[in-house]
Amino acid sequence: MSARWTSAVLDPDVAGGLAVARGPDGFLLDDNGVLFPREWLKRQDLDILCEHGIGHFDGEPVFLLELRSAAVVSGCGWRGLRQFMLEGDFDIYKLLGYAAQIGTWAREHRFCGSCGQAMTQIHWERAMHCASCDLRSYPRISPSMIVLVTRGDEILLARSPRFVTGVYSTLAGFAEPGESAEDCLVREVREEVAVEVKNIQYVGSQCWPFPHSMMLGFHAEYAGGEIVMQPDEIEDAQWFNVHALPPLPAGRSIARHLIDLYVARRLGLAEPVLPG
């Protein structure tokens, strides 16, 4: 966790601090950024769904105002979370990534999943509570495996129809109930490109708040098989030489880190550090 940004459960009944506002179009910002004096922000004409204390940035308490709808605030605009990931202060992106996950969870857990009654926010822990059946709902994290498959100087990259035009990336997928991380990795590679892998090695992890994933990054070696693309999931998949790579994912993503790390090792270059 960054020294600048630390998550924490803060009581929204306590006055003061800073705040970020999140709506359908992303986060509110002005020329000074996304962190506003909290009391000033709450005086604006915002349709606030809920408020959560989310932590500290540079020692200042920070709160999230989750909005029902977008609003016009003089001198301000809105920016999506992906834009913050690609540019600017990475510590701010991590704060906003956390805020986005808390906001999504709070929005989706206003009513009890067991009995359907309205839930109330617990201020001393990150939970929503149903007084009717005593159910507590906590933010959920969905584990996902992402893997770079290699064969000497070649790396296996694929593209989904959802990707930016021309961009190729590593293979990834969500864990199913009962699977280990390794089981998931083997299954996903087999399903997406019909390739078998061996010598699986864990590399690192990254929060992926789109909306609530934890990406567990691996490297694996090719063990056999010919590429057969999964219909509707994989638009193209190829082996690429480390000297002739296609357009790649964003530099701050774990997918790009897996690629850059392997290329650096093959070419004897300085190894990159995973942002985090």
Give the SSE map.
Layout lengths: L4 E6 L7 E6 L2 E4 L6 E2 H5 L5 E10 L2 E8 L9 E3 L1 H6 L3 H19 L11 E3 L4 E3 L6 E2 L4 E10 L2 E6 L11 E4 L6 H13 L2 E13 L4 E12 L11 E6 L12 H14 L9
In CATH's first tier, which class of the largest domain applies? Alpha Beta
Radius of gyration: 21 Å
SSE topology string = EEEEHEEEHHEEEEEEHEEEH
DSSP helix fraction: 10-25%
Domain module tally: 2
The overall average pLDDT, rounded, is 95
Shape: globular
Summarize the structure.
It is built from five helices and 16 strands.
Features:
single chain; 276 residues; alpha+beta; Nucleoside Triphosphate Pyrophosphohydrolase; 2 domains; seven-stranded mixed beta sheet; six-stranded mixed beta sheet; 5 helices; hydrolase; metal-binding; Znr_NADH_PPase; magnesium; NUDIX_hydrolase-like_dom_sf
How would you characterize the overall build of this protein?
The chain has 5 helices and 16 strands. It is α+β, with helices and mostly antiparallel strands and about 280 residues long. Strands 1, 2, 3, 4, 5, 6 and 7 form a 7-stranded mixed beta sheet that branches. β8 and β9 form a beta hairpin. The protein has 2 domains: about 100 residues, Alpha-Beta Complex (Nucleoside Triphosphate Pyrophosphohydrolase), CATH 3.90.79.20; about 130 residues, Nucleoside Triphosphate Pyrophosphohydrolase, CATH 3.90.79.
